[in-house]
Specification:
mainly beta, Porin, eight-stranded antiparallel barrel, two-stranded antiparallel sheet, elongated
Length: 233
């Protein structure tokens, strides 16, 4: 009887503690898949965040410090097209020239707030619709590029163009938002596995470089696939 009473007392004391997990903190890593014009410049990038959350019903609230980085150029999309004319025969040929040595990067950090609305619970998995608003400081760099472009016309090497473009650096502050589906799964109390998939857009602009056939990117769009851990109390 004493054992039963002792266990009952422990459970009675533990239940409020388990249900009082109103706060949380954690970190997440992200794989960032560029969309739209950003995909014409970069392949998949990476990011991360450190966050603090408040879990008091629906919606819950999360404040985050975020970082993102794109440093791998999309070489399949980076080329220029020129028309060359043979001065002896008058023959013309349109040719494409890859920009193999062109270096570019886009990096940034910022602060954001996220509201999460409970959608459904599937066993231990809690699914929420999330809306994020944030403000970001970003830096974009494009290296200089210089080359003489020759193509073959009837066995003759004909000069199509000479490119000599200086390097540029852009820095700015931009607002952004994200909309997606987040999940949380308890692992070992008080640790949760958290993550999700979000469509993210940062309202920044990468300038065009007409000599390199690079068009303006007016919004940084990406798919944010994230996973991490959270400790709740």
């Amino acid at each position: 009887m004493r054992t039963i009473l002792a266990l009952s007392l422990v459970l009675a004391l533990a239940a409020p503690a388990a249900s009082a997990q109103e706060f949380g903190a954690g970190v997440q890593a992200s794989g960032l898949v560029p969309i739209g014009g950003l995909a014409n410049r970069f392949t998949t990038g990476f990011g991360g965040s450190a966050f603090f959350s408040v879990h008091r019903g629906s919606p819950d609230w999360t404040g985050s410090f975020e970082y993102f980085s794109f440093t791998n150029e999309n070489t399949d999309k980076l080329f220029v097209t020129r028309t060359a004319t043979d001065s002896l025969t008058g023959a013309e040929v349109s040719a494409s020239f890859p920009l193999d040595t062109l270096a570019m990067s886009l990096k940034g950090w910022g602060l954001s707030g996220t509201a999460g609305w409970e959608l459904v619970t599937l066993g231990p998995v809690d699914l929420r619709l999330s809306l994020t608003l944030g403000f970001y400081r970003w830096t974009a760099e494009r290296g200089g590029y210089a080359d003489s472009l020759y193509t073959d016309i009837g066995g003759r090497q004909v000069l199509a163009d000479v490119i000599n473009v200086p390097a540029i650096t852009q820095e700015d502050w931009s607002g952004g938002f994200a909309l997606g589906l987040d999940f949380s799964v308890p692992v070992v109390q008080p640790v949760y596995l958290v993550g999700g998939a979000r469509y993210r857009a940062i309202i920044g602009e990468l300038w065009a470089s007409l000599a390199l056939d690079l068009e303006t990117v007016s919004t940084f769009q990406m798919l944010d696939l994230r996973a991490g851990v959270e400790v709740r109390w």
